[in-house]
Specification:
The chain has two domains: 122 residues, no CATH class; 163 residues, Cytidine Deaminase, domain 2. 25% of the residues lie in helices and 17% in strands. The protein has ten helices and eleven strands. The longest helix is centred in the middle third of the chain and has 23 residues. Bound molecules: zinc ion (ZN). Zinc ion (ZN) binds next to helix 9. One of its GO terms (molecular function) is tRNA-specific adenosine-34 deaminase activity.
């Protein structure tokens, strides 16, 4: 089932020197986990003004020993007073407060002899960030409540700023998504759903499978991604379905990925024949955000990264669910949305 020659190749330009079409701008933005994308969760804590600054280091030691905050290593213990007219310059975080907390005295919060409360004023309640911030925007939000440390993930920051991929990588991404768009158009022209998908080995940029939606009343599960994963398996001498009636669905025989040949480019699960387990180490390009079934198929097939063009109301990689980042599944992968979004939206504007 080799692809018909040139079936999905770029249309050839007929006139020499005709102007290059204006490239449509697009941005591949990461689809983060719920923890990374969510608002900062706050919990109540007790703090107290430091009336005598000379006691600060002693108080810091004693309070930290009595009330360690193992789940809040990001919280700084001392902050400058927020009120410029306040007679004291510093405030100290004492301990977390329960959900139904009311006013407490120093003696209740810091019992002697563990802490000598000399130098501290009347405790007050203050909301503090419950968890370490994971992104710069969470950090900015968290520190507005209480001074917070932040161990920045540079890759996440540059991905959110749209700076993760080089010009060369973007050109390759665009070319793979254009291939998926052509497969989707091929399907649409034959009355099938306009969704296209491509699997690529990112180490070599080699296209391993190209698919479009083949679903029908008789075969409702043959979404483009299910077809594409099965075609990758065909390329490995496996696979289940017969896609002969769909000549735009094609695969290339698998080879041992570059990652294995080069030694240790990345960790790959491989089978006895040295081939990767289905999509281990591979990227998927798909014109539309995958549904829950397809997202789970990508978990099972061990995909490395997914790039999709247009979001979908039932989408399981960002819109309704974030299946790629669930801590309770045994495989997680990176997801980027927005590659050629405009063209992808035009394919299937209702969904
Ligand atoms: Zn699907």
């Amino acid at each position: 089932m080799e692809p018909a020659p040139g079936l999905l190749e770029q249309p050839q330009r007929t006139e020499a020197g005709s102007p290059q079409p204006e490239p449509t701008p697009w941005q591949a933005l990461p689809v983060l986990s719920e923890q990374q994308a969510g608002d900062v969760e706050l919990v109540l804590a007790y703090a107290a003004p430091i009336l005598d600054k000379r006691q600060t280091s002693r108080l810091l030691k004693e309070v930290s020993a009595l009330h360690p905050l193992p789940a809040q290593p990001h919280l700084k213990r001392v902050r400058p007073s927020r009120d410029a007219s306040s007679p004291h310059a510093l405030e100290m975080l004492l301990c977390l407060a329960g959900p139904a907390s009311g006013p407490r005295s120093l003696a209740e919060l810091l019992p002697r002899p563990a802490v000598d409360p000399r130098g501290l004023g009347q405790p007050f309640l203050v909301p503090v960030p419950a968890r370490p911030p994971l992104t710069r925007s969470q950090f900015e939000e968290a520190r507005a409540h209480w001074p917070t440390s932040f161990h920045e993930d540079k890759q996440v920051t540059s991905a959110l700023a749209g700076r993760l991929f080089s010009t060369q990588e973007r050109a390759a991404m665009q070319s793979h998504m254009e291939r998926a768009v052509r497969a989707a158009r091929w399907a649409a022209a034959r009355g099938l759903r306009a969704v296209g998908a491509v699997v690529v080995d990112p180490a070599s940029d080699h296209v391993l499978a190209t698919a479009h939606d083949c679903s029908s009343t008789a075969s409702p599960l043959l979404h483009a991604i299910m077809v594409c994963v099965d075609l990758v398996a065909h390329g490995q001498g496996r696979g289940t379905y017969d896609f002969a009636p769909f000549p735009a669905c094609s695969f290339a025989p698998a080879t041992v990925p570059y990652g294995v040949r080069a030694g240790a480019v990345r960790k790959l699960d491989t089978d006895e024949d040295g081939l990767p387990y289905v999509c281990t180490g591979y990227d998927l390009y798909v014109t539309r955000e995958p549904c829950a079934m397809c997202a789970m198929a990508l978990v099972h097939s061990r995909i490395l990264r997914v790039f999709y063009g247009a979001p979908s109301p039932d989408g399981a990689l960002g819109t309704r669910f974030r299946i790629h980042a669930r801590p309770d599944l045994n495989h997680r992968f990176q997801v980027f949305r927005g590659v050629l979004e405009e063209q992808c939206l035009l394919l299937d504007p209702d969904t």
